[in-house]
Amino acid sequence: MHYFQFHIGDYKSHTHHLSLIEDLAFRRLLDHYYLHEHPIKQRDIARQIGMREHEQDVLTVLNEFFVSTESGFINPRADEEIAKYRKFIEDGKRGAAKRWLKGDDSPLIATPIATINHNPLTINQEPDICISPPSGELDDEKLPKCNHKAVVDLYHKHLPTLRRVEVWNDTRKGYLKQRWREVAKELSEKHEIKAEDVLVWFAEFFEHIATSRFLTGRVNDKSGRAFAADLEWILKPSNFAKIVEGKYHGAN
After folding, report:
1. N or C: which end of the chain has fewer CB within 10 A?
2. Is residue 219 classed exposed, middle or buried when 0-12, 13-18 and 19+ CB atoms within 10 A define those classes?
3. 104: how many CB neighbours lie within 10 A of its CB?
4. In this model, does residue 128 exceed pLDDT 50?
C-alpha cells in the first residue's frame, strides 16, 4: 500500500505520552508496515526506518503498539486496512473480467483506493477480528459471562484520576472479554465461581494499579512529562501481564 488515511484526533489521544523521537518512530513504523505489508522483524527494524541511533525508542514503541507473533510484529488495525485494499484490487480484477466476458467495451474509470468512506487508521478503532489480541476465541459455557459495565464502573471507582471511558467499542470489548476469560479460567481451577468472584478480582486489580506512582501519572520522565494509563492500555495483554507481575510498582 502507498496510501492510508490518518485520523489526527485518535492518533493524538493515544500517543500524547510519547516523546518526539518515539512519535517519529511510530509514524515510520506505520509507514514501513503499510509499504511492505508483512510483519516487522525486530532484529534490524531501527536501521530499516533510518533510526539506528534510537533503537531503544523504536523497540519501546514497537512493543507498545504492535503485537509480537511467531512471524514478527503485527499491527491488527493496519492489517484490516491492508486486507480491504487487497479485496478492492481483487474485486476490481473480477469486475474487469466480467465486463470483458460480456463484451462491454466502455472505458474503465479508475476508482481511488481511498474514499471518504474509507476507514481511517486509528489506535482505538481496531477491527472486531484479529485484534490485538484476537477476540475470536469461543466462549466457555462453564465460565461466567463478562460483565463489561461492572468492570468499567470498578475502573472509574478505584482509579478516578485516570482517563474516563467515554467510548466502549468492539476493540475494547474484545480486550476485556479476553482478560475476563483468563481471570475466570484461573479462578475456576480452584473452585466453582460466579461473575461476582471475577469482579472482586478486578476490584483488587484496580486497587493494585492505584498504588503505582508510574501508572497513575505521579512520576515524571526526563522531559518533565508524566505517563498515565487508561483502561484500554491496561487491558492489552502485555501491559496486563506486567501490571499483575508488579513491573510498574517499583519498590512499592
Report:
1. C
2. middle
3. 11
4. no
